[in-house]
TrEMBL record:
It comes from Albidovulum denitrificans. This is Carbohydrate ABC transporter ATP-binding protein (CUT1 family). It comes from the Bacteria. InterPro entries: AAA+_ATPase (IPR003593), ABC_transporter-like_ATP-bd (IPR003439), ABC_transpr_FbpC (IPR015853), ABC_transpr_MalK/UgpC-like (IPR047641), Mo/tungstate-bd_C_term_dom (IPR008995), NA-bd_OB-fold (IPR012340), OB_MalK-like (IPR040582), P-loop_NTPase (IPR027417). CDD domains: ABC_Carb_Solutes_like. Residues 4-241 form the ABC transporter domain. One of its GO terms (molecular function) is ATP hydrolysis activity. Keywords: ATP-binding, Cell membrane, Membrane, Nucleotide-binding, Transport. Belongs to the ABC transporter superfamily. Gene3D superfamilies: 2.40.50.100, Nucleic acid-binding proteins (2.40.50.140), P-loop containing nucleotide triphosphate hydrolases (3.40.50.300). It holds the Pfam family OB_MalK. The lineage of its organism: Bacteria, Pseudomonadati, Pseudomonadota, Alphaproteobacteria, Rhodobacterales.
Length: 358
């Protein structure tokens, strides 16, 4: 395992980048702690795979350095970094059996056959392929081939880091859950440093100790699932995390009050001197319908999803989502919405403002 340090790291695919907009990965400084499990989360094109490929050595950064346990590996080839990487689409040796595919990384490093056989059996059980060990990889489904690729990435215990680039894309939904569970167990048992790229928030939040949210080539927040939910540091985090995402409403904020379309909303903290684009953000879980208080809304529809209801409403042409528990009363005369003051976040130019205790 290794502590991975990214120092002044940035990358552009252009030969002569002239501005920040020319960088696919904007400047980043961060330490990936030894033995931690991280998820890189964001929409397509945000820079996740670029960053992962720089860490693995498949791509040399335009600027900055990468260090493994303090040793500069910026110019070191992938083979010298002692990492295992699993890609989005399966990479297997078609002419080999499943057993030989899984054993290849160990045999390539001269491990004795007794250890190889034992470890291959463990991994085959983990990925549910014990009954297919003697089959050739050629002719297997993409799902099965990706499980082989995943198993081959996990078969070595001595790697500095395990890197996963959307590895479950071709895996069926039930097996996705099984393999995520096994990955978490692997991390718990052996303490590998793991970095997992995904655009799926469920995968990220259930796999990682910390989630690294990326937007437009920039890391906008690194935090635990709870921190991302309770205190999104950027409006993108609020929008991207959660289902539905955070409600964002333009407002004028002064002290402990937000003014929206002539209505006043109490805030849990105080704010001074805000400028630029000012918005309040509140999760649908911290909004509720009322008959007489709050912002006037028009309820468009109610979606009953079992344990709660999602209420789709509109406020002056802007969509507002409200989550009501199954036991909460919802009636036709409830046409106003109240926000929990302690769970309202305030943003200036998309970045969260901490505020002062009220």
């Amino acid at each position: 395992m290794a502590k991975i340090t990214l120092s002044n790291l940035a990358h552009s695919y252009l030969p002569n980048p002239a501005s920040e907009d020319d960088f696919a990965l904007k400047e980043l400084n961060h330490d990936w702690q030894d033995g931690a499990a991280y998820a890189l989360l964001g929409s397509s094109g945000c820079g996740k795979s670029t960053l992962l490929n720089i860490i693995s050595g498949l791509l040399r950064p335009s600027q900055g350095r990468i260090l493994f346990d303090g040793q500069d590996v910026t110019d070191a080839p992938t083979a010298e970094r002692n990492i295992a990487q699993v890609f989005q689409f399966p990479v297997v040796y078609d002419t080999m059996t499943v057993r030989d595919n899984l054993a290849f990384p160990l045999r390539n490093r001269g491990r004795d056959e007794g250890y190889v056989a034992e470890r291959v059996q463990e991994i085959a059980h983990m990925i549910g392929m014990e009954h297919m060990l003697d089959r050739k990889a050629r002719g297997l489904t993409a799902d099965a081939k990706q499980k082989i690729s995943l198993g081959r990435g996990m078969v070595r215990k001595d790697v500095n880091a395990l890197l996963f680039d959307e590895p479950l894309t071709v895996i069926d939904p039930h097996m996705k859950w099984e393999l995520r569970t096994q990955l978490k167990k692997l991390h718990h048992d052996f303490g590998h440093t793991m970095i997992y790229v995904t655009h799926d928030q469920t995968e990220a939040l259930t796999f990682a100790d910390k989630v690294v949210v990326m937007y437009d080539g920039r890391v906008v927040q690194i935090g635990t699932p709870e921190e991302l939910f309770e205190r999104p540091e950027h409006t993108f985090v609020g929008y991207f995390i959660g289902s539905p995402g955070m409600n964002l409403i333009p407002a004028t904020v002064d002290g402990t009050t937000a003014r929206i379309e002539g209505a006043e909303i109490p805030l849990g903290r105080g704010y001074k001197g805000l400028s630029g684009k000012v918005e309040i953000g509140v999760r649908p879980e911290f909004a509720r319908l009322s008959q007489s208080e709050g912002l006037p809304v028009t309820v468009r529809r109610i979606e009953d999803v079992g344990r709660h209801k999602i209420i789709r409403a509109e406020f002056f042409g802007r969509d507002i989502n409200i989550i009501a528990r199954e036991e909460d009363a919802v009636s036709a005369d409830m046409n106003r919405v109240i926000f929990d003051a302690d769970h309202i976040n305030v943003y200036a130019d998309d970045w969260r403002v901490a505020g002062e205790a009220a």
